[in-house]
Amino acid sequence: MQVIYLDNNATTRTDPDVLADMLPYMTDLYGNPSSMHTFGGQVHRKIEKAREQVAALINAEPSEIIFTSCGTESDNTAIMSAVEATPRKTHIITTRVEHPAVLNFCHHMGRKARRVTYLSVNNAGQLNIDELIRSLDDDTAVVSIMYANNETGVIFPVEEIAERLDDRGIMFHTDAVQAVGKVPVDVKRLKVTMLSLSGHKIHAPKGIGALYVRKGTRFSPYIIGGHQENSRRAGTENVASIIGLGKAAEIARKGLDEEIRHVSRLRDRLEQALLKTCPDARVNGDTANRLPNTANISFEYIEGEAILLRLNEFNICASSGSACTSGSLEPSHVLRAMGVPYTAVHGSIRFSLSRYTTDEEIDKVIHIMPVIVKELRQLSPFGREKLSCQR
Ligand code: PLP
Predict the structure, then answer these.
(1) Does the chain have fewer CB atoms within 10 Å around its N or its C terminus?
(2) Residues in the ligand 1 pocket, defined by CB under 6 Å
(3) Is the dihedral of CA 30, 32, 37, 43 positive or negative?
């Protein structure tokens, strides 16, 4: 049976054209891009082409792009660099709904004598910019706020935040891992200091990312060694994956408008159908301002994990808002920060689509979900109570 893959915020399928561009650099063209000889030089030139392709996707200059091993490394590097570049300042501001790549790094920095402010969000997952402005002080080194949330797809007003921070000498990093390639991202308009992106969210392979660092920014490398990446990130380059990221960026840039139309139409069709056919279902997050490919829906009174297991039997891949840690169900920190009721947090499912998602796949999910929800509600004590009330 064919897999119906609606978990594209977790990772995406590598585009065949991306793989085709990469393969020669894993076989015949294996030279080291730092070598003096022509054999290595041709690899170096291809890496520089990839840098141009990635820069073009976010309207940056190629020299402002540093290749990293993943989105997590880009996030860690940005925050660490900002802190190291401003040694007299100890304050970091972030939000309660960041990905662990930022959140856990900030917890770590909090244990290293840094002061961290975690901004709250409202029921729709939106940030209160006044709270951010009130949190700023002369000791603030960096503000790190995600562009789009990986669980709900809610988009933060990064451009407005940058404007409010302008001229205060505070570095502004945005984790745009979920936004790049899904919505237009233009660093010249956004005026952020640093921006993270990741290859495997945009149909490039896993294990490759990039960090945009605005020209003129004081930068302190996180990985120290050789002079690769203009002495900003040491280590022999992951050549094939860099080339893959470049190609994926080019494909994403050229197809962005069409992809937005495609995934948002399918996402809306799925969402509207499920809200109609599944009682006590609700969408989590600001529906007016979110990624076009993401729907986070709570099916109250049942466990998200139970839904996922049943979907899995039909080869349908999605993800839940809870992570199963050490035998206990840990509800999503994002939905909890939004104040989503307990019964809804536990029954939340994230569907995330891609350019490969088809109408037929969405039809199958629309058909099967109400059956699964009804069946699980009959098994759950809360659900049975609700069903008997509805009769
Ligand atoms: N930031 C966000 C918002 C993400 O969704 C992810 C991955 O899910 C990351 C960072 C980490 O990226 P990577 O998996 O490339 O380390």
Answers:
(1) C
(2) 70-72, 75, 99, 101, 146, 150, 175, 177-178, 198, 200, 209
(3) positive
List, for residues 277-319, the tens digit of each pLDDT value: 999 999 999 999 999 999 999 999 999 999 999 999 999 999 9
Per-residue pLDDT tens digits for 215-231: 999 999 999 999 999 99
Q: What is this structure's pTM?
A: 0.95
Interatomic CA distance for residues 190 and 181, integer angstroms: 16
Going by their DSSP bridges, the two strands 4-5 and 91-95 should be labelled as unpaired
DSSP 110-156: HTTT-EEEEE-B-TTS-B-HHHHHHH--TTEEEEE--SB-TTT-BBP
What domains are defined for the chain?
Answer: 4-10+255-390 (3.90.1150.10), 16-252 (3.40.640.10)
Mutation probe of ligand 1 site: the residue of 150, 197, 208 with most atoms within 8 A of C-beta = 150
Report the C-alpha gap between 237 and 290 in whole angstroms.
34
User: Chain centroid to CA 129: how far?
Assistant: 21
**366 and 358 Cβ atoms separated by less than 8 Å:** no
